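# nightly structure sweep
# worker-07 picked up a monomer target from the shared queue
# config: single-sequence mode, recycle default, output format = structure tokens
# input follows
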Amino acid sequence: METLFGEPALRAFPGRVLAVKASAAATPAILVALAAGAFAYARWIDRGSISDLDRAGRKRDVFPSFRPEEVSRIDIERPGEAFTLERGEADGGSWSVLLARREDANPAAVELMLRELELATKLRDVGDPPGGGFDAPRVRGSVVDGPLHYRFALGADAPQAEGGAYMRIDGEGTFVVGRSLKVQLMRGSDAYRDRTIVALGAGEVARLEVRAESGGYVLERRGATFRLSDGVRASRSGVDRVFSALADMRAESFLESAAVDRGPPQDYTVVLQPRDTSAHSVVELRVGGQCAGMPEDVMVFRRLPSPVAACVGKSIIAALATPSEALRDDSPLYAHADEIEQIRLESTEGGARVEMARKGGGWRLRAPEDRDLGADESDSANLLAVALAGARADGFAGRARSGQAFAPRFEATVIRSGDEAREVVELSGVQAGDFVLARRADDGVVLRLSRSIARRFEPHAVAIRPRAVWSSPVDPAAVVSIDDGCAPATERLQRVDGGWRMLAPRGFAADALSVADLIAAVGHATAEAWVDEKDDGTFGFDGPGSCSVELTLEDGQADAGRRQVGLVFGASTEGGVYARALGDPGVFVAPAILRGIASHVAVDRRPLRIDADRVTSVSFTRGASKVTLERRGDHLAWQGDPPDAADSVSRLTEALESLYPPSVMHTGGPAREEGIGSPALEITAHEMQDAGARDLRITVGAEAQVDGADVYFARASGLDATFVVPRQAVRAILGAM
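# output follows
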């Protein structure tokens, strides 16, 4: 006992010592009781003062005993302002700012204050320094920390301590503190006020009402979705924009409390009703009027749950001013693609049905057969889910409830993850004008879908076919001939001695790079989506835009040693162009760029390339203006040698090198719209080549945009074909003349 407590402890508890001597067996229990009594004495009897232990352990701390979790109140008084930070008890210990009214405090800002107070240290002790600033302190305040009550004052800046200041605590003396604590204590009330105007998120709101003299709207929750006042489902993206704007509405600055009483111009009134009224309060705002001197901000006045007047970014106005019509959901489904757990597509007339469900990282097919899908098939199933979720209507066709006149031919059902909600969409047959009506079971709204979008809601087992068009790989080196009917004039090419010869149209050399691009594009063809098991006559394969390209391979995979692979292109559709492979009835959507490559003319473009290092002279003519460059030794020079021509020569030479055509438009004579008869530029070059001298004349016609690129039409002497050349190169030449 003596070794644990010592003689002072024995004298402090004589009765307990006798008890210990009376029964040695009770010693452990008595020791525990003595320890508890000593702790209680230190904790409760001596709790209102700072212990010697605290002082000894925190000699350099500004607050010799400080427990942040027990701080209940901080008072700050600055010239022209006084406020209080107060910790609540009934609401889980949240903090408030007490000004003219009680407001929610910013928890992070209060935590920063508490951390500064806890970690603040004395740089040095001082007596009563002259000029200490305590006659009129910059800050007076107090901190209530459990039973302790600190009162302090912040004086003037202290010399020999960069950024530091004098501080005094009643009963603790005067000392110098660092810049960090000084800055924290000098912060105004705005630093601690919660800048969040609306704390409710979309998932916590049962009803949102926006009222305005001209318009307004109501969003009312129905399960996971919101409905407009007429019962139409609100767009998910539109609802997200509105609630994101409310959540992003932060107080840039606060207005005087008197402004709350006056109120703003009532441009908009916003009321949010919470789903859980026991956990959240109604929020009511009035928004309107520009903040003085802040053209990018508008005034917002929160009346409930606690009054606040502030300036916020005017971007909130765009969300509040959204017409209710713009919030109507034009999507057949509410689910996002990654939320779709099950898909069932079926004919209401019986027969065809496709059903699948997610399984791990892939999918399991349930109908028309029951099996796990392979990785490539699961990729196509994912694309189907993306297509269904991303479908958008061309317009609204009214409302129709069950039992009303609507003759569905197909029904699409998806089940969302999370809430396991079931969404059903019914589709009619094709209507006049080549569109399909789709009715949402959710709200009875009837949408107009384009034929191409509606196809994805029909039960086609081919939709999960792997995207690769060819089951056997196409070796580019095995291709021996090409028949391309997609070019402006049908082209026939044949491999000869490792190179390519153009058999039709005659009189042209083949462009090896264009041929390689075509073989690679066809040989690696992939489907954006498989849409039907066979052509039903609506894909445009017999239409005016239809064409085909065929490759003949000599690779030993066919009995005769040769096989043909090819594509037939039909009508354009959303996301590409309809296509099918030769000998395969399945219809898919091919990328538009594949059709574009097939339409390129494979005529050799090299004759239009001008090598500036081989040019002996070149002339540029624009109308009556003409400039000629001539070779002088190892460089080209401006004919006539004007003193400032060096820069222009350099720019002309660079532009000449970049005039190489990216593609050939067509063979044969020029079209009127190509502008060759009224050229924008003519270039005449004399060039020394390995085979001898060459004279080339290039005529540049009208501007255009081809395959998304800005170009000029151009023709070259001796070639009956129209090329395109980069617009940037032509304009560089015109600018340097």
